[in-house]
Amino acid sequence: MTDFLNSKSGFCFIFILASCFCSPFVKAENNRLKNKIDSLEFYSAPDTNRVNLLNSIAWEYRYSDYSLSKKYFHIAENLAEKLHFTTGIITIYSSLGIIFEREGEYDSSIYFNLKCLKIREMIRNKLGIAHSYKYLGIVYGELNDSAQAFYYINKSLAIISKSGNIIEEAGIYIELGNLYQDYKCFGLARFNYLTALPLFIKENDKENQARIYNNLGATYFSEGNHRKALGYFYKTAEIKQTLKDVVGLANAYCNIAIAYEKINKDSSLHYFDVAIPLAKKTGSLSSLMQIYENLADFYKQDHDYQNAYNTQEQYDIIKDSIFNIQKSKAIADMQTKYETENKEQQIAILTKNQEIQKAHAQRQNFIGYALGVGLILILVILFILYHRYRFERKAIQIIRAEKRRSDELLLNILPSETAQELIKYGKTTARNYDEVSVMFADIKGFTEIAQSMSAEALVEELDKYFGSFDLIIERQGLEKIKTIGDAYLCAGGLTGPLKGNPANVVNAALEMQHYVEKEKLEKSVKNLPYFEIRIGINTGPVVAGVVGIKKFAYDIWGDSVNTAARMEQFGETGKVNISDHTYSLIKDDFNCTFRGNIEVKSKGKLAMYFVDSPK
């Protein structure tokens, strides 16, 4: 069968099969597109209706022909800008960001997403801002810039989670799963994918279902479970066929071919040969390059070096083409970006000088020569001014970016009010807070667990747990104070009465215990060491401030902090132990169990409660 597929007749057979398979898609798409393109004559007036129709036509081409899609979007862009049609412009920039990302032109994708974000910020469209953050996170993830990717995805999640839009939030879980997959945290990646999947099935969102199935297949493939990966890749291909997404179908077949390499080489080669004509038909160079790259690896592993060489040669040709296209596009975008403001003025000057030269061309050669020299001097001056303007603007952007990074770093260390005070005055003053809820979390038997693990594995595991705790308390509006060995200290109520109230602190504690229990279950199945934690919470007055000069740190002090530590010491693993005062503040919102008055050293008898669950 392999010889047949490699032969000329075998290739023709596959091409005919792929053409027959795609022909219903193309015919239906052509009919729909033809109707919309014919409608352009009806909507011939330069108004918003024509912009919307052009956008719709461009979006129809998003899978089948990237060049035509971009062409119609740019026509719509010119008309929308003349009409000052903000909604249409947002749609165009957002769509172009997606199109360029799919093409692999990430610089252009970031450029259009940032333009879209700027407009959405001006009109204060919070949901739109969250969408721009999400797509920026996706593009930076493609560029393997994990820090920027997590930054934008978490900013998007912070907005979406407050909006109550469950489907949008599910989309963010997909992107978080992708980032965890990049970090090879496949269990966490699958957890996020499987959290989002039922919501998309309920909404009959086929495109996102396909994304999740493909990503689940990728996690199992990375772990070496190729048969389970195949099942998910087949589900992806089935949905891509239903959606008439030819590029996505080609990529799905490529994934199936890769998964079959260790199982059945004939099947692997078959799906490679089916994927190639599909990718060629769409004109997607990035998809075709990926297929050739993996096919070349297949031939190398099969010791078929002649086919490996030929396939690698095809891969190199496409790679060079993409590089040249991206390089030319990047240069064109930069020139457009920085020269637009001066373009009309320069054209006017050049036109005027050309008219002067033409009017005096029949006069004395000396006058013509003088005008030519004058024109050259003007161009030289404009060139110098232009480059000086570019240099100053670039310097200002660098300074602003560095200041923004510095401020963001400070906000990661200190509460926002304290950080703003330090930025403004260069120092801070200690503050008294009447009612702050303090939480201590401590790992049970940490010393014994540490002796059974290497130092590197121990630090990695602690970082994983504490990193998850950071995300939990950020969602609840709490402030992380510090970590002390295996202990974790945070508080609510330091940034205002409505942020980080006792209920938020208790919710965060329950979520942290839930996370630790989930990790315990996964690790116990694999006979791996796991952590268990005790959590204690107390509410009362504290003093907060910054100590130190060079390596300053934000900390809190007071008897309320000591009492919170006692709540943790006298708690139980897997439980959230709270004081009597905290109980009085949250009893209407949570089911609690009274533990009695327990003797505590230096404190006497203290009433304690276990928090069971929210009401």
What characteristics describe this protein?
alpha+beta, 615 residues, 8-stranded mixed sheet
Descriptive notes:
72% of the residues lie in helices and 12% in strands. With 615 residues, it is of the alpha+beta class. The N and C termini lie far apart (64 Å). The model is unreliable at 1-26 and 329-351 (pLDDT under 50).
Report mean pLDDT, rounded to a whole number.
81
Give a short account of the largest sheet. Answer: 8 strands, mixed
Number of helices: 23
What is the beta-strand fraction? 5-15%
List low-confidence stretches. Answer: 1-26, 329-351
Q: What value does the Rg take, in angstroms?
A: 31 Å
Number of strands: 8
Name the shape in a single word.
globular
Q: Which structural class fits the helix and strand makeup?
A: alpha+beta
What is the CA–CA distance across the termini?
64 Å
What share of residues is helical? over 70%
Furnish the topology, listing elements before pairings:
Elements (H helix, E strand, L loop, with lengths): L1 H5 L1 H35 L5 H13 L5 H18 L2 H18 L2 H17 L3 H17 L3 H18 L2 H17 L3 H17 L3 H17 L3 H18 L2 H15 L4 H18 L2 H17 L3 H55 L5 H49 L2 H10 L5 E13 L2 H6 L3 H21 L3 E6 L2 E6 L9 H24 L7 E15 L5 E5 L1 H11 L6 E4 H7 L3 E11 L3 E11 L1
Parallel strand pairs: 4-6
Antiparallel strand pairs: 1-3, 1-4, 2-3, 4-5, 6-8, 7-8
Helix pairs in contact: 2-3, 2-14, 3-4, 3-5, 4-5, 5-6, 6-7, 7-8, 7-9, 8-9, 9-10, 9-11, 10-11, 11-12, 12-13, 13-14, 13-15, 14-15, 15-16, 16-17, 17-18, 20-21
